[in-house]
User: Fold this.
Amino acid sequence: MLRAFVDHLSGQGLSTLQSEIYDFAKNPHQLRQLRNFLADAILKPMAAAGGKQPPVTPSPNQSVAFEIELAMTQIEGSTRNPGQKSLKEECLRRDGNRCVVSGAIDSAAYANMPPGEREGAGKTKTQCSHILPFALRKFEEKNATHTKNKATIWWVLYQYFLVLKNKIGADTVH
Assistant:
């Protein structure tokens, strides 16, 4: 699993992971803990259904615990607003009425386009979907473990995928 992360991370995220692997190379227990930490904080939350958040294995890196505690005080959750319809409209407006995966034009927008602009453009029915789980937006103030797990997930995403920092967070999952 660590090899898969190394193969797919880039930039500073890759450098961070390579440094951690080097630091823990002589301790198989710490390498397994790092593997579990990454699986619990990155892979499992992306597959979690219905907002169910699995527990997160602590990082073998001792300084991470302090950084996550600090992150817990700085992360703001968000509400369910805006609604799905207005969210889709905002996303289509932002993305030029195109599907970000296929590049095809949204069917409704296609029908309203002047014929000259349609040439060579494919059309498709689009759906709005969260790339990061919508459940990561909300913190349960009465459940410290739940809050710490979500703070850990956001911290890990920012550590290994630096491009996300200041672009998306619990308060801007939409």
Q: What stands out?
A: The longest helix spans residues 28-47. Residues 84-124 form one domain.
